[in-house]
Write a structure and sequence with these properties.
By secondary structure, the protein is of the alpha+beta class. The strands form nine sheets. Strands 12, 13, 14, 15, 16 and 17 form a six-stranded mixed β-sheet that branches. The chain has a five-stranded antiparallel β-sheet with strand order 21-25-24-22-23.
């Protein structure tokens, strides 16, 4: 929270810096005027100077967003950083929807041009730097099920997969028209629960239920389509066009859904494997191309605040790790924050989750079903994801590159046993642990294989056969080691594994499964759940 009053000698710029240092990235004009004992003219002039320097953005009059250094080139942090605060400022109910929510559920076949929000009243588009927030009105916002996803600055309300499905058919223009609607829906269907879809359908307009049921049946998702058919049993169903603004042509209504397929939908084969036929060969997207040319034709999803669907990659040790898994719910894997070192020798990486602009709690939550003992969160470099293009008329266009930040979570499991030594990156034995039972080996030997498995030049790599072999170690059962000794050449020896101590459990953090809040182990040893503690800071 902002202080009640500011020190006499504190400037508005210094106060803005203090807000960012406290993890707060938004404030209102009213906040500033309440804490500074200065004239409104002086305060507004100071805010205007900060805007001119790129330190602030103002997506709505009286509402300010602080621009961190890493987002200066974009002009604003991503929309998820401030969308909840903005909607509270506007006093409007909302949820992130349409393509933006589809992307958050991992079903973004094509990234949206803008960050899309569904709210309870007509609201003009908001802009902050290159971030563009598009609002769509719905009278049933407060009746729709949502999920609260954590962001870098708090949480935001996101439409459940079932709500997103209805949004796609209700706002086809915002969803990229029917080709893209069908493709995204085909991917999203894997995340839709029939019972939840049925509950959501109760408050939806009948034509939207007809169109969604028609598309789902076309994808051979009868389990979902049948739920919608139940919703229509007691309704007076009339024929509706699939695409309202297209001519019906010679198409006839579908006998079950009474939907006239007046556009031909070409669906990505990876999404559904089919196309939806019609007599009209012109898609809705083509019919509106002329008007779209006068708008921004592409905005990279990260700068619009939308996030890419995460991908889980199984590393070579995955099968052995899952065999060792202990599915005792609820599991609270330890979270290693960015910059923290994973304890060497204790943990073996067996899977990775790669994404763009995902916060640590989000990737941690996606890792939970894989039953890791620990998760390590990493922020990588920025990559170019597209460009912002604008057509100005008379054949003149401009393009500006846009970027996203790579994020990753590595999943680890702790084997039952470990070898009691320390190896350098080159494989040299630097020290044997006290009490280690060793035969034929000395400190300074360079290990080239352990139990028949090669030791790589950098033993921390996930593909190391030695790392995979750690799951097979047993306490007290000697393993054969081949090494090279200076002046002696190739030598052989044995060493007995010892119990893996799991010291990583003593001083790191985990997350509450119910609320996804970080559990901080303070220096005094007391465990405290922290609502505001960012998951990517050191503890």
């Amino acid at each position: 929270m902002a202080p009640e009053t500011a020190p006499v000698d504190m400037s508005v710029a210094a106060w803005v810096d203090s807000l960012q240092a406290a993890g707060r990235y938004t404030f209102t004009q009213k906040d500033v005027r309440q804490i500074f004992n200065r004239s409104a003219v002086a305060i507004d002039a100071a805010l205007r100077r900060l805007k001119q320097r790129g330190r602030l953005q103002c997506p709505r009059r009286g509402f300010f967003v602080i621009v961190a250094v890493e987002y200066r080139s974009a002009g604003s942090p991503p929309a998820p950083w401030f969308i909840a605060d903005l909607m509270r400022f506007l006093d409007q109910r909302y949820y992130v929807g349409i393509l933006s929510s589809a992307a958050l559920h991992g079903a973004a076949h094509q990234q949206p041009m803008t960050f899309q929000v569904v709210t309870d009243r007509v609201t003009r588009t908001a802009s902050a730097g290159r971030v563009r927030i598009e609002f769509h009105k719905s009278r049933i916002v407060d009746r729709m099920p949502v999920v609260e996803l954590p962001t870098d600055t708090g949480v935001m309300r996101v439409a459940a997969p079932e709500v997103t499905a209805f949004d796609l058919v209700r706002y086809p223009a915002a969803a990229g028209y029917w080709n893209n609607v069908a493709t995204v829906l085909g991917e999203l269907a894997e995340r839709i629960q029939p019972e939840a879809l049925g509950l959501c359908a109760r408050v939806q307009a009948v034509p939207d239920v007809q169109r969604l049921g028609f598309l789902l049946e076309s994808f051979r998702r009868d389990d979902l389509a049948d739920v919608l058919a139940v919703r229509l049993r007691d309704e007076r169903v009339r024929p509706v066009l699939l695409a309202n603004k297209q001519r019906p042509g010679r198409a006839r209504p579908h006998p079950k859904w009474q939907v006239v397929p007046n556009v031909r939908i070409e669906v990505d084969q990876a999404a559904t494997g089919d196309s939806i036929p019609s007599t009209s060969q012109r898609s809705g997207r083509a019919s509106s191309m002329e008007s779209l040319m006068r708008l921004v034709v592409l905005v990279a999803f990260v700068l619009a605040g939308c996030q890419s669907g995460p991908e889980i990659t199984r590393l070579p040790a995955y099968a052995l790790a899952m065999r060792e898994a202990i599915p005792e719910p609820p599991r609270k894997p330890v979270l290693f924050a960015e910059g923290e070192q994973v304890p060497p020798g204790e943990l073996v990486p067996y899977a990775a989750i790669y994404a763009l602009n995902h916060a640590a709690p989000v990737l941690w939550r996606l890792a939970v079903p894989e039953m890791p003992d620990a998760v390590s969160y990493h922020v990588g470099d920025s990559i170019q994801t597209g460009s912002v293009g604008q057509y100005w008329g008379w054949g003149i266009s401009t393009y500006t590159p846009t970027y996203a930040t790579r994020t990753a979570a590595f999943l680890y499991r702790a084997p039952a046993a470990k070898i009691p030594w320390r190896l350098s990156k080159e494989g040299m034995v630097t020290v044997f642990e006290q009490g280690a039972k060793v035969v034929g080996l000395l400190e300074g030997d360079t290990v080239i294989s352990i139990d028949g498995k090669e030791v790589t030049a950098n033993d921390t790599e996930a593909k190391s056969e030695h790392l995979i072999g750690r799951f097979a170690l047993e306490v007290g059962v000697p393993v054969k080691v081949i090494a090279v000794r200076p002046g002696s050449g190739r030598i052989e020896g044995t060493i007995e594994p010892v119990e893996n101590p799991r010291t990583f459990l003593q001083h790191r953090s985990s997350i509450d499964l119910d609320r996804y809040k970080v559990l901080v182990r303070d220096r005094d040893g007391v465990k405290r759940w922290s609502v505001d503690q960012p998951a990517n800071s050191e503890f």
